[in-house]
Amino acid sequence: MRADRLMAILLLLQQREQLTAAEVARELEISERTARRDLDALSMAGVPVYSRQGRGGGWRLVGGARTDLSGLTAGEARALFLVAGPAAAVTPALRAALRKLVQALPAPFRGPARAAAASMVVDPQRWGTSRIDRRPPPRFLDALQDAVIRGVQVRLGYLDSTGARTDRTVHPLGIAAKGQWWYLVATTGTGRRTFRIDRVTSADPTGNPAHRPGDFDLAASWREITDEVDRRRNPLAITALCAPQALSRLRMVVGDRLEVGTAARDGRIEVVIRGYNEYALAGELAGLIEWLEVLGPPGVRQHLAQIGTALLKHYT
C-alpha cells in the first residue's frame, strides 16, 4: 500500500502545478499526517519534489508540473519502476498507472525503465513448502541487476554446490528470489542456467551486449524453472480420491505438492500428490486413510497395507 500511495502522489504532482498535504490526504483518503510523511519520503528518496512554505505554498515537482517528468534522472526512473514493478505486491490499478507513466518519461529513459520493471521476480515461498523466509540480499545482487537492466555480459566467478570455483561469461536475463535465496537467470555457452547469487564470488561487466531472446519473459521462465526443480525434488506422483471435506487436511499434510483435479462420479475429488519416495508418501498419508483412497502406484498401496498391519499388531 505504501508503494501505491507514493506512485499516486507522484502522478498527482505530475498532473497539477502544486498540491498541499491536505489535498493529497483528501485525494487518497488518508490522514494529513500520513500525506506529509509520504511526501517527505519521496523527497528523501531522491524524487525531485520540494515544498514551498507560507501562504499559497505546497508541494511541487522541480521545474513545475511537466507531463514528460523530465525532472527525473535515469537512475530515479529506474528506481521508481523497481519499487512498483513485477517484483512488488501492487494492485492492477498501479500496474495500469505504470504503463501510462512509462510513456510520459523522456524517450532515453523508457528502455531502462521497462528493463528495470521486468528485471526481477520475487517468490517468497521456500522450496517445497509454503513457509516464507527473508534475509538480507547477497553481495552482488545490485551489480547483477544493473547488468540485467543495461543488457551487458558479465564475467562471473562462481562456487558450485561442491565448493569448486569456476569462471565464465554469462548473458544476464533476470533476477529471481525464491524464499531466502536470490538467483541470476542467464544464458551461457551451454544454454540457460540459474546461479545462486550468494555463491557468486565476482561479477565484472564486460561492456559487451548480452544476447536476450526477443520473446523472453522472466516470470514465465521462472515458473518453468521452479516447476522443473519441484519435479526433481519430488519425482514420484501418486493418484488418489479424496473426500471433499478432507481436502484442507490433505493440503496441511502435503502443502504445495497437492494438485486438485475434478470430481469423480461418487463425489470424491481426484488428486495428484508428489513426493520423494513411495515409503515416505505412504507414511504421510496413512493418517488420512478414512478420507483418502490411493489408486496408485502399487508400491504406495503396498506400503500402506504394511503400515496398517503393523498398527493392528501393536494396537489391537
From TrEMBL:
* Coiled coil ranges: none
Does the entry feature the keyword Repeat, yes or no?
no
- Return the PROSITE patterns for the record: HTH_DEOR_1, HTH_DEOR_2, WYL
Query: Which stretches make up the HTH deoR-type domain?
Result: 2-67
Q: Which GO terms describe its molecular function?
A: DNA binding; DNA-binding transcription factor activity
Q: Give UniProt keywords alphabetically.
A: DNA-binding, Transcription, Transcription regulation
Q: Does the keyword Transcription apply?
A: yes
Tell me the superkingdom of the source: Bacteria
Q: What is this protein called?
A: Putative DNA-binding transcriptional regulator YafY
Q: What is the organism field in this record?
A: Paractinoplanes abujensis
